Automatic annotation (TrEMBL):
InterPro entries: Dimeric_a/b-barrel, EthD_dom. It comes from the Bacteria. GO terms for molecular function: oxidoreductase activity. Residues 10-88 form the EthD domain. Pfam families: EthD. PANTHER family: BLR8190 PROTEIN. This is EthD family reductase.
């Protein structure tokens, strides 16, 4: 399994972010080829102090090749280009293979 994690710092207009994200961006996510599951939250808390992030998104793919293919697809390119329409606080995107624990 391969995951992508998207961390969103506080945007200039949180209400616009929420509305746009739910009503316009997530429908694009639903069309992303190869995505096995995805989830998001606007309730991002830190163990101590304030969270540096306003929202979080994660998606799962079968493997890195599936993620790379999805990112390169027309839908993936559209998804990536759409981020500028709501993420005025910036964005941090990381992806990684998932290691299973045997303990």
């Amino acid at each position: 399994m391969h995951k992508v994690l998207v961390l969103y710092p506080e945007p200039i207009d949180p209400d616009h972010f929420r509305d746009y994200y739910v009503n316009k961006h997530l429908p694009l996510v639903a069309q992303w080829p190869g995505v096995l599951a995805w989830r998001y939250s606007f309730e991002v808390a830190a163990k101590q102090g304030d969270s540096p992030y306003f929202a979080i998104f994660e998606a799962e793919f079968a493997d890195e090749a599936a993620y790379e293919a999805a990112s390169a697809s027309p839908q993936g390119q559209q998804l990536s280009a759409d981020v500028a329409n709501y993420a005025t606080g910036g964005v941090v995107v990381v992806h990684y293979p998932v290691q299973n624990s045997t303990s």
